[in-house]
Amino acid sequence: MRPQRVLPIAALLLCAPALTGTAPAAAAPHTPHTSPTGPLRILLTNDDGYDAPGIRKAFERLTAAGHDVTIVAPLTNQSGTGTKVTSAASIAVRHPAPKVWAVDGTPGDSVAFGLAEVFGGKAPDLVVSGTNFGPNVAGLANHSGTVGGAVAALESGVPAIALSTGGLAAPDPVTTVNAMGPTVDFAVKLIDRLRSRARSGPLLPRGIGLNVNHPVIGADGKGGASGVATTFQDPQTLLEPDFTDSGDGTWKVTVKLAPRPAAKGGDVESVSAGRIAVSPMNADWNPAPLDRALTAALLAGLQP
């Protein structure tokens, strides 16, 4: 993520009172377009599968808010697939309901199919990925299929929001499903904010998406977050793998949560404090100008 792009979005958010459900402004699809005055055409995807509770809640709530929502999501659970896309010569797709498409592939495959076929090359106004189980903060975001679906949209010039529900503690399924309600309620408020700030312009700055992480609040998960913070991706991995030789050519793999102190202003700090983390992101992974300059200095004079 390029830090210089975070500041304008942060400035927009700081103009809002209390921020009990708000956020930034949005990028354009395949061809530059303006924010429509009518309902948004939304491609809804995820990595938990097309019939998972989070995407169903998002579909119901976004539809109830007046948006034209179409699910194009993986046929099966694709958690942890990141930005992977299938290289096979064919892909299976099911169409179990008028507004639902199930793609036997990754979130990236689903978004690609949705943009090319379901939306017929006329890009939707927004791609929403999620909401899904567990947080996608710090290093977890790098491997998240939820974030991967949003990145696939950004690569095609379509504004995108990734939605995740959960904190760093091991998720309780019932509590987390309950917390998906407040998560999608916030998503509706966020989209309303983007539209009101966009006026006749794009929903978000071109090439910028949002990675939204909503904490689980209350014993039943139905509580509201204590606030909203514009954050950055905390530079830590969170998970620590361990490999044990089984002696037969295989290795047993275990993974434990090994968090370090949260970076001030980062997504881990925000979610751990019960606040919604909204992290601007882009799809090209270019470093900030200062980092590029430092790298150029390291390479100065190097010859093949």
Notable traits:
single chain; 304 residues; alpha/beta; Stationary-phase Survival Protein Sure Homolog, Chain: A; 7 helices
Q: What is the CATH architecture assignment? A: 3-Layer(aba) Sandwich
From the spread of the alpha carbons, the general shape counts as globular
Output the structural class. alpha/beta
**Number of individual domains:** 1
Give the C-level CATH assignment: Alpha Beta
Please provide the count of β strands: 11
- Biggest sheet descriptor: 9 strands, mixed
Bin the strand percentage.
Answer: 15-25%
| Backbone CA Rg | 19 Å
For the record, what is the CATH homologous superfamily label?
Answer: Survival protein SurE-like phosphatase/nucleotidase
Q: Tell me the series of helices and strands, N- to C-terminal.
A: HEHEEEHEHEHEEEEHEH
CATH topology: Stationary-phase Survival Protein Sure Homolog, Chain: A
The low-confidence runs, each spanning 5 or more residues with pLDDT under 50, are 1-33
Give the averaged pLDDT, no decimals.
87
Roughly how many Å apart are the termini? 30 Å
Helicity level? 25-40%
For the largest sheet, list the strands in their spatial order.
3-4-2-1-5-6-7-11-8
Q: How large is the count of helical segments? A: 7
